[in-house]
Amino acid sequence: MAGGGRMRPNILVTGTPGTGKTTTCSLLADATQLRHINVGDLIKTKNLHDGWDEVFECHIMNEELLCDEIEDMMEDGGNLVDYHGCDFFPEHWFDRVVVLQTDNSVLYDRLSSRGYMGAKLTNNIECEIFQVLLEEARSSYAADIVIPLQSNCVEDISSNVATLTNWVNNWSKI
Ligand code: DAT
């Protein structure tokens, strides 16, 4: 069996904030019955952080606390992990690493309407321009499990969810 004895696969959905991770994971969780782990929310609700970063306006995640928190679920399998970072998770946790990507102008509008401005907005747009998450994923996981997917419009979401649902449903046969 693939995936270290897991009955169901674990998928990491990563990408710059605003690329559609949470929207995609919610729909994919409904379609596959995988468990959606929204890491950003978990960091807040379970206090898995070391305070607030004033410059980047976000919590300073404590990687060790986070990994301890989700370890048992990850070993069981069947999880969709939604986070804008990927290099600190144990590599063996994931069977697929999906990197969502969005055109800069589209992303700019999405992040502005979410209220991002100044350094936070610029940093995230630069993160997308320089494909930081794709590079991070490629340097942390085997090349054949890292899948970049475009997420520019609602049709992209539907087709990404359909593709991934199909992959999940066929997983045990891989
Ligand atoms: P993330 O979890 O990556 O931060 P999100 O799922 O919260 O992103 O989406 C941010 C906003 O953009 C939200 O209002 C939904 C919208 N959106 C995301 N992906 C989209 C897409 N492919 N087409 C149209 N809108 C999208």
UniProtKB/TrEMBL annotation:
Binding positions (ATP): G18, G20, K21, T22, T23, R114
Source taxon at top rank: Eukaryota
Annotated region (NMPbind), positions in chain: 38-61
One cellular-component annotation, GO: nucleus
Localisation: Cytoplasm; Nucleus
Family (UniProt): Belongs to the adenylate kinase family. AK6 subfamily.
Record-given protein name: Adenylate kinase isoenzyme 6 homolog
